[in-house]
Amino acid sequence: MNEARVAIVTGGAGGIGRAVAERLSADGCRVAVVDLNAEQAGVVAGAIGGLAIQADLAQRADCRRAVDETVAHFGRADILINNAGFQHIAPIADFPEDSWEKLLAVLLTAPFLLTKYVWPQMAGRGWGRVVNVSSIHGKVASPNKAGYVSAKHGLIGLTRTAALEGGSLGITVNAVCPAFVRTALVENQIDDLARTRGISAADVLGQVILEPAAIKRMIEPVEVAALIAYLCSDAAAAVTGAAWDIDLGWTAR
Ligand SMILES: NC(=O)c1ccc[n+]([C@@H]2O[C@H](COP(=O)([O-])OP(=O)(O)OC[C@H]3O[C@@H](n4cnc5c(N)ncnc54)[C@H](O)[C@@H]3O)[C@@H](O)[C@H]2O)c1
Fold this sequence. Notes:
seven-stranded parallel beta sheet; Rossmann fold; binds nicotinamide-adenine-dinucleotide; 15% strand; 9 helices; single chain
């Protein structure tokens, strides 16, 4: 690699996104950390010599600006990690319409928009990597997660379509599908899962999170970051259109 590649990591202020930003930086990339949380994005970007961009990815204009500011600052954009996300847990009958719309906006529409906006950068240099952070819930469903499950399934469809279009342009597009990763997103949903399933918070860990898994533990953010770093590497040039499980065997049965 002559000039360092430039990566955009959404949701890079914490959890998986932070681990990805740190790993790609360690691998030699310059990184734009895009997040709703300006303060934390600044902390992460500061630690890796990257660029913090505050953005609400539910807004189309902010998606556009995130790409434009990255290219204005670094002069290019080669890698896009669509990672920003959140969760809302409720049965369909009680699912707030605005939560459904926001989940689809952040988890599915923003990855489409960011891919669209960054595409000319990648196509122009004949090299690009897009990795979409889907989930086990991109492949299987769980009750009370209608918006999340729908968006994550849709994200795999977007991944496959973009992979077909990117094949002749040197752009690979893949999804990763983690089970439960040790982040704030999981910690924040334990109480909601307990309430909607009528079990204790302690039983959520045993029955909901660990019971379906072959390996009974949480996944660490750095483990997901390592898989994403591989998919962003030249070594992974033959991998495209994949939805790669990193789920402790959660979906094996
Ligand atoms: N933690 C898990 O178990 C798990 C499992 C499978 C998939 N995922 C997916 O991994 C991704 C990262 O999740 P995480 O667990 O690291 O969560 P996290 O809550 O630790 O981090 C998510 C980040 O996204 C940012 N974000 C949320 N809404 C945003 C918006 N509108 N605009 C910009 N930024 C926004 C948050 O500020 C936060 O920094 C998500 O897409 C999530 O669905 C997580």
